[in-house]
Amino acid sequence: MGGRPVAMPEQAVILVGGLGTRLRPLTYRTPKALLPVVNRPLISYELEWLRRAGVRQVLLAVGYQADILRGALGQGSAWGLDLAYVEEEEPLDTAGALKNCAARLHGRFWALNGDLIFDFDPAPMVRQHCQKGAVLSLTLRRVEDISPFGLILRDECGQVTGFLEKVSEDPTGQRTVNAGVYLMEPEALESVPPGRPWSNERNLFPGLVASGATVLGFLPETMPYWLDVGRLDTYLQANRDLLSGALPWVRAETAAGASLEPGARIIPPCSLAEGVIVRAGAQVGPFVSLGAGVEVGERARLRETVVLAGAKIGRQAQLSEVVIAPEEAVPPDYQQQGGVVFSG
Ligand code: GTP
User: Fold this and answer.
1) With the CA atoms of 195, 61, 179 and 321 taken in that order, what torsion angle do they form, in degrees rounded to the nearest 10?
2) Same domain, 49 and 172
3) DSSP 3-state of 337
4) How confident is the model at residue 167, as a pLDDT?
5) Mean pLDDT score, 318-332
6) Which of these three, 218, 243, 268, is where a domain ends?
């Protein structure tokens, strides 16, 4: 297939219809995409990357908790984007969800797994995709330990030649795996059956490669940050990393409307949202995010912890590496290391 004119995509699809089972119980009430990381919804990091990449319209492929997502994210003006919602009656899996959006796609588009925080320069990938006339380009990342991942194999021109699931040895030595960020032409979806579950990794991608389509693997020269925020440990890690400055445009800040009583101590980096109250003698940090309206009682101690909006931490409670669900009341003197506090 010949080259195409180089043009940055103006549309994107973000897949946000999953159940988020690995982040239960947090995701029973809050969709994964809306869980805050440093006091911004997880999905806002992808929206920001897409806006910087020149995208104007983002289709959110929704199903489970669609109304909560729609209510929270609205039309997208807060992110300088036009957001539209494409709903599935039954979960269609990742490729089925993209197919469900096909009628609204007018040209080249980004497709993203909805639970990632990442940063890399998209322009070289778009250039290579267009110049080589690809129907699909898969962003790759290089990992040390390949055993938990599926490997993506490429030839010297970047054409994907195969997929190897969860092996301990890489015969090519490339150690490149799927980063969950795809660049597609609408015709990449032609083979996907409408209205039934179909998977990107298991069905669509191997099918395209087998059919002889131009499918490229693109390994960015630098990938300053990449994390799959699908589990509790990676959710806490995202919070730690971003508070530490992993993305230069994310700052650990105390909102003007947060209040600290005399003797309250904040050990940076921390993020305190509007309406937070930290009572006398409490010690917060390092690596703590307190959501809007959170109250930390006298002499409580919190480190490496995320407290979601409206929760109240009793006096002298001690919490480390914990996530506190929204509106929870943590009793005085309560102690917990690791896990979630959620009373349903
Ligand atoms: P777990 O249940 O914990 O595995 O999380 P998940 O439901 O998010 O699944 P997974 O992490 O494998 O999904 C990757 C991305 O695809 C996530 O952003 C999901 O929201 C999304 N996704 C998975 N299945 C579907 C689906 O059937 N429809 C849509 N629209 N998105 C999906």
Assistant:
1) -130
2) yes
3) strand
4) 79
5) 97
6) 243
The pLDDT of 36-49, averaged and rounded, is: 97
Q: pLDDT at residue 255 above 70?
A: yes
Q: Tell me the H-state helices in the chain.
A: 26-29, 42-52, 66-73, 93-100, 123-131, 205-210, 232-243
Q: Which amino acid is at 314?
A: G
Q: Is residue 248 part of a domain?
A: no
Residue 116 near ligand 1, beta carbon < 6 Å: no
Domain extent, residue 145, equals 11-243
Query: Nearest-CA neighbor of 291 among 26, 35, 31, 39?
Result: 39
Same domain, 232 and 264: no
Rounded distance from Cα 240 to ligand 1 centre (Å): 24
Instruction: Give CA–CA dist 175/142, Å, rounded.
Output: 5
**312 C-alpha to ligand 1 centroid (Å):** 31
- pTM above threshold 0.90: yes
Atom 31 of ligand 1: nearest residue by CA position: 17
Kindly state whether residue 282 falls inside one of the protein's structural domains.
yes
Q: Are residues 24 and 109 in the same domain?
A: yes
CA-to-CA distance for 17 and 240, rounded, in angstroms? 26
For residue 36, how far is its CA from the centre of ligand 1 (angstroms)?
18
Domain of 217, CATH number, reads 3.90.550.10
The answer to whether the CB of 97 is under 6 A from ligand 1 is yes
Q: Which residue has the higher pLDDT, 122 or 252?
A: 122
Query: 243, 273, 291: which is the final residue of a domain?
Result: 243
- Cα 48 to ligand 1 centre (Å): 20
- Nearest-CA residue for ligand 1 atom 23 is 18
Residue 251 lies in a domain: no
Residue type, 109: F
Residue 254 phi/psi, 5-degree rounding, is -105, 120
Give me ligand 1 centre to Cα 231, in Å: 12
Provide the CATH number for the domain around residue 329. Answer: 2.160.10.10
Q: Both 238 and 293 in a single domain?
A: no
Tell whether 109 and 193 lie within a shared domain.
yes
- Long-range contacts formed by 273-280: CB under 8 A, 24+ apart: 273/39, 273/309, 279/315
Are residues 227 and 301 both part of a single domain?
no
